[in-house]
Amino acid sequence: MIPKTIWQTYETPINDLPSNAKKGIGTWKHLNQDWNHKYMSGQDREDFFRTEFGGDVFDTYIKYPLGVMKAGLWRFGILYIYGGVYADLDTECINSIDSWLDPQYDMVVDLEGDTPWYATQVIAASKGHKFLEDAINMAVERAKAGIVEQQHMVHYYTDVTMFTDSLFKSMNIEDGYNGDLRQRTLEFNQLPIAKEYKFFSFGGNDARRLLDRDVKHLYWGDGRIEDYVAWKKDSIFENLTVKDVQESQENNQ
C-alpha cells in the first residue's frame, strides 16, 4: 500500500523558495487535500541519509558534486524508507493523485515517452519496495566506480538512465532498449516479477500521463525561470570539452 504522502525537495528551506516553486507546491496541496505534503531542504536530505542509511549510501550522497544528483538519490531513499509519491519541484499537479494512482499497485511510474527511459519526475511507491532498493544499490555501485564529470552524468548516476537500467535489472530484462518502450512496457507490466512486486508503468497511449496530463513537468533544469538554479547551467557542463562530450556519449551507449 502506498502511503498518502507527497515528497518534494530543493536546496533551500521551503519559505525561501521562488514564487513559481511555491505555486507548484500549492497545486499538489490543493488537489490532494487528504494527502500529507512533506518537503526537505538540502540540509534535511543530508540529515536524512546520515540517520536512515549511513555507510556507503550516505558516502555516495555526500560524494555527488551536484544538488540535482543528491536530490535524485533522495527520491529513491525517501520512498524506500517512508513510501508515498515523489514529485520534482518543477511540476504542477493537474489532476488529483487518486485519479491516476490505482491502489492495487505498490509502485507506479511513467515513461519519458520520446526517449528509451522510464521517467523519474513522479514516482509512487510503497516503503521498502525492492525496486527502490535495487535503484539505490545501483547508484552506489556506479558512484564507487568513480564519478566522471561528463555531459550525461546526472542521467547516468542518479536519474533516468540509472533508473531504467535498474528496473530492467530488477525485472531480469536483457533487451529492454530494443524497440519502443512505450509499447514494450505494456509487455513488461505483465512479467511475473512485475506482478509479484505490484509494479506498473503507464505506456502506450497513456505514456507521459505524469509529465503532460495529470502532472505537468515544466523542465526548469534547462534554466527556464529566474531564481531557480538550473542544473544544466552548472559550470561543470559549461567547462566540458568536445572530447568530454564524445567520451560521455560512448560511455552511455
Give an overview of the whole structure:
With 253 residues, this protein is an alpha/beta fold. The protein has a single domain (5-251), classed as Spore Coat Polysaccharide Biosynthesis Protein SpsA, Chain A (Alpha-Beta Complex), CATH 3.90.550. It contains 12 helices and 8 strands. The strands form 2 sheets. The protein has a 6-stranded mixed beta sheet, with helices on both faces. Helix 1 links the parallel strand 1 and strand 2 (36-40). The protein is globular, with a radius of gyration of 17 Å. The model is unreliable at 228-237 and 240-246 (pLDDT under 50).
Approximately what portion of the residues adopt beta-strand conformation? 5-15%
Mean pLDDT over the residues = 89
Helix amount: 40-55%
**Strand order within the widest beta sheet:** 2-1-3-6-5-7
Provide the descriptors you would attach to this structure in a database record:
two-stranded antiparallel sheet; Spore Coat Polysaccharide Biosynthesis Protein SpsA, Chain A; 44% helix; 12% strand; alpha/beta; single chain; globular; 253 residues
